[in-house]
Amino acid sequence: MSHTSIGISTPATAQRTLPRPTGLWVLLGLLTIMALLPLVASPYALLLMLPFIAYGIALLGFNLLFGTTGLLSFGHALFLGVGAYAAAVLTSKLGVLSFELLLVTAALASGVIALAVGALCVRYTRIFFGMLTLAFGMLFHSFLFKFYGLTGGDQGMRVLRPLLLGMEWRGGKTAFLTGPFYYYALALFALLGLAMWRITQSPFGLHLRAIRENAGKAAYVGVEIFRMRLAAFVISAVYGGIGGVILAVTTGLADPELAYWTHSGNLVFMAVLGGSGSFAGPAVGALAFVVLQDFVMSITQYWRFVMGGTLVLLVVFLPQGLSGAIELFAVRRKERPPHAA
């Protein structure tokens, strides 16, 4: 059997397998537009972009698990909930207001929980993996909902305004969120995006793609399937926990619905909408989802019906997602004969 059959041996094969830098440039271009947005956008539009940043970060991790490793989680909102409640406990119960400490604590808590949950889940694939992650997500949601004394139950827990870089920013909540916090979260998104790009380009990312394509052949040439899948699961959870902190600070509340299975479904929707096959696709999907949901909710109370119909049309007509369709259009246009009309 040739090592090149799974694409982890020769430099030429590795170059074909590694993600093209187009995805990184798309992500950086999107972040550049977001950085310039405060110059022209209203405060409401900037507030709307904060959930996009949070989901964009979470989806970077989710896509490492789904798009790169081939494991579809139906309970990934669990880690957004962990991040949100970590921020709530630290700020409202312990009086810790350092945003950097919130991020580190949420990342550690999400990683530890993912290590325990993933040790069981990554032993399985396909629907079995999905159902196990869904079960753990529902267990965590039930814990948040039922243990009122610890978590606030259906009322959730309050998240206080944090300090950024040790500094207290004056002004109202809207001014804080659309000013320093917006740029801080955007810079964090950029750094985590670059880190994820490096991960996907590394030999570790190449092994994950080999596992996705053919786990049996990958194991035959020495790839440690369990450890690689578990590492991908933990990294994706850390990104989810950081996204949960940003969501909680934006809303000022850690709510049990953050860990509900429908929220996990939204993450899958965003990934499919943008295109899980590309590096920047899930981020594009997060932006499209946030804007589309806000628009549809403003015109009809049956917004769930519209979003569901959109997903059906997307799967049928654009299975590669928005980013994949745009990329395909660009390739076909480039290959078009010069004399064509």
Summarize the topology.
Layout: H1 11-17, H2 22-36, H3 43-68, H4 77-93, H5 99-121, H6 126-146, H7 148-151, E1 157-158, H8 173-178, H9 180-201, H10 203-213, H11 215-220, H12 225-251, E2 253-254, H13 261-274, H14 281-299, H15 303-317, H16 321-334
Antiparallel strand pairs: 1-2
Helix pairs in contact: 2-9, 3-9, 3-12, 3-14, 4-5, 4-12, 5-6, 5-12, 10-12, 13-14, 13-16
Q: What order do the helices and strands follow?
A: HHHHHHHEHHHHHEHHHH
* Cα gyration radius (Å): 20 Å
Level-2 CATH architecture: Orthogonal Bundle
Top-tier CATH class: Mainly Alpha
Low-confidence stretches: 1-19
Beta-strand content = under 5%
Helix content percent band:
over 70%
Number of contiguous helices: 16
CATH topology: ABC transporter involved in vitamin B12 uptake, BtuC
Largest sheet: number of strands, sense, barrel closure: 2 strands, antiparallel
Structural class: mainly alpha
Shape: globular
As for the number of domains, it is 1
Compute the separation of the termini in Å.
Answer: 48 Å
pLDDT averaged residue by residue: 84
Strand order of the largest sheet: 1-2
Describe the oligomeric state of these chains in a short phrase.
single chain
- Counting DSSP E segments of at least 2 residues, the number of strands comes to 2
